[in-house]
Amino acid sequence: MKAKLPPCIVFPLALAIAGSPARAEEAPQLVYGYVQLMNNYIGRGLSQSVGEPSVQAEVDVNPGEGVYGNASAVRIGWIDKITPGNRVHYEIDAVLGYRWLFGHSGEVRAGVLQLQFPGHYVAHARRPDTTEVFAFVGWHGLNARINYDVTDSFGTPDSRGSWYLDTNANWPVAPRWNLAAHVGRRHSRGTDPQTGASNEKRFSYTDYKLSVARSFVHATSLTLAYSWTTADPAIYTLDGYDVGGRHVSVVLEKDF
Predict the structure, then answer these.
(1) Any bridge partners for residue 212, and if so which?
(2) 162 vs 203: CA distance, rounded Å
(3) Where is the signal peptide (predicted)?
(4) Distances (CA, A) of 45 to 12, 85, 138, 151
(5) 95-115: per-residue pLDDT in tens?
(6) Model pTM greater than 0.70?
(7) How far is the C-alpha of 23 from the C-alpha of 16, rounded, in Å?
(8) Rounded to an integer, what distance in angstroms lies between the CA atom of residue 174 and that of residue 185?
(9) Which domains does the chain have, with CATH numbers?
(10) What is the DSSP secondary structure assignment for residue 25, as one 8-state letter?
């Protein structure tokens, strides 16, 4: 579930030629990342931390064209709620992909995403580890991404082929201010092998988010977001908390 993972301090590289009259040129920064603190971790429209505060960090390699990768970690809470006795507190994600750049601000990406949920599982619990392939296209402030599950999806039996479509629009409205809108669609496939119940009818939903962000000095930013979904509360309520309900989230981010 991811949803956008260990923190890093990045050292920019430089080219310096001693004794040369030519001006030294900075090499492009190839490694960068961020750390986020949040009151509630919302991923793909759902509260992955089940209403609790969370921390997330990500390291990315190669922001330019060509092969790129990233790794991330985020604190979650939903797995323990589904199966008492589990002790699984983090999601670890890794991406390997290829990026094409075009025009002034166009971008196309494709790759593989591996989602891992390390920890202690009771004997009868299914591990939600999932592998997805994805494609992304962005132009100016608009972008869309589709993730397709090539394994069972987050521990749901017979759910291979499920997908999530993520669409976003961003508008800079003033210096250091940005508005954003998001619509996502989760489509589950398959049936429960024991009951015959449709995964599509039980687990599919649409999610929405509106947000405003303010950037500050020292590569920090603060985002306020309001999100909601069409997910069935009878399915998506954990320990009395509707993870697919209406949420207000606040995210403090530091980029490196």
Answers:
(1) 179, 224
(2) 10
(3) 1-24
(4) 35, 26, 21, 21
(5) 999 999 999 899 999 999 999
(6) yes
(7) 8
(8) 30
(9) 31-255 (2.40.160.40)
(10) -
